[in-house]
Amino acid sequence: NEDEDYIASLIQQAYYDTPAAAFGMPQYTISLYPKTGSERIVEILLQYPDTPEALRRKSAQLRQQAEQLTTALNGHTPTNMARSLLALLRQRVEVVADSTPDRSTAYAALMENQADSEGLALAFQLLCQQLKLECTLVQGTLDGVPHFWNIVALEDGAYRHVDASQTTGLFYTD
Phi, psi (5° rounding) for residue 93? Predict the structure, then answer.
């Protein structure tokens, strides 16, 4: 019974939930047959920014890099892991203010060392996933401009906001 906007939100959620495969939001077309009713066919056409072979290669490189960067953190507390990941990203990645598709990916952050808030949030999410640390990517605004950050679960059961693109972006509460 859902509409095209709901299905579009699912596509976006799937994109942000899989940072190792997020190399630019695909263009998509959604068609519902018939337009209304409880029994319908949903057709989704996705157009990706690169060839399947190039996307697979980038994903494999990105996963390998994430594994290398997180190996030493296994067994630490969630708080220490989150602090270490944030320090790692701040040390390795130059934050670019202008959002462009080529700087809005975890690949840009971890492989090319330049990313905007979206790329940093995707990179942080990927590294958290590698460590089995509960983390969610959040899309919002900062000073009226689209902005991305993460919410991470700590060992005390608390959830904290982490913004890798800001110098003071660690462990904000709601």
Answer: -110, 130
In 3D, which of 138, 145, 148, 143 has the Cα closest to residue 117? 148
If you write DSSP's letter for every residue of the chain in order, what string do you get?
---HHHHHHHHHHHHHH-GGG-SSPPEEEEEEESSSSSS-EEEEEEE-SS-HHHHHHHHHHHHHHHHHHHGGGTTS-HHHHHHHHHHHHHHH-EE-SS--GGGSSHHHHHHSSEE-HHHHHHHHHHHHHHTT--EEEEEEEETTEEEEEEEEE-TTS-EEEE-TTSTT-S-B--
Q: State the Cα–Cα distance between residues 121 and 101, nearest whole angstrom.
A: 14
Which of left, alpha, beta for 104 (phi over 0: left; psi -120 to 50: alpha)?
Answer: alpha
pLDDT band at residue 94 using 50, 70 and 90 as cut-offs:
very high
- At 132-148, the pLDDT tens digits run 999 999 999 988 999 99
Distance from chain centroid for Cα 99: 14
